[in-house]
Known about the structure:
The complex is a heterodimer.
Chain A (H helix, E strand, L loop, with lengths): L1 E2 L1 H7 L4 H8 L3 H8 L7 H11 L3 H4 E2 L7
Antiparallel strand pairs in A: 1-2
Helix pairs in contact in A: 2-3
Chain B lengths: L8 H22 L7 E5 L9 E5 L1 H17 L8 H28 L2 H33 L5
Antiparallel strand pairs in B: 1-2
Helix pairs in contact in B: 1-2, 2-4, 3-4
Amino acid sequence: MKNNIKVERARNDMTQAKLAELAEVSRQTINAMELSKYVPSTVLALKLAKIFGREVQDLFELEKIDWK
Amino acid sequence: MNYLFPHQYKKIGLMVLLPSILFGIGVIITDFSPEFLDIKIKFVLSETPFSSLNNNLLNEILGVLIILSGLVVAFSREKIEDEFIEKIRLESLVWSVYVNYILLLLALVILYDFDFLFFMMFNMFTLLIFFIVRFNWQISKLKKTSFDEK
């Protein structure tokens, strides 16, 4: 799954630490998601979308390898 | 509900666990057994019921301390116990169960009598120790590699 967290974070001029605080997760979790090492739960995905004022689909996108 | 202790307990647990392990290893090496901990124990559940034996309580006390403090250290929350940390916790648990039982399988096949018993003495604690080391190593690796990019 691809995500635009880093792009949205830059657009909102937000550090990983700030986003982590708002989403109530650790900074490591934000970093892991930006590096595509971790796929967030639906709840966290919805929280991130809400923080950026976007739809979930704007933030996350399925890739071919997600279908198996 | 995830059956974890509060975060502050981790430090307290470590303060008990580390000295207990070091002391325990010292006791094994030196065969230390202070007289005031000698007691006579009556066995109820044994092949010959109500027989009795002299026993030094030190190894029982240390064993209980290591297991209890080990459980607390292993299963205290991280400062921020979020879903990603929970995933690492689960992975580490699976990993340590595998490693522990691979070692146990090997020991079962290649060690006999008192050698096996000696191994089993450590095996009482290794599952917890493997988990604690692996989990905390993974967490510290994350903290090191994740720098803040603007």
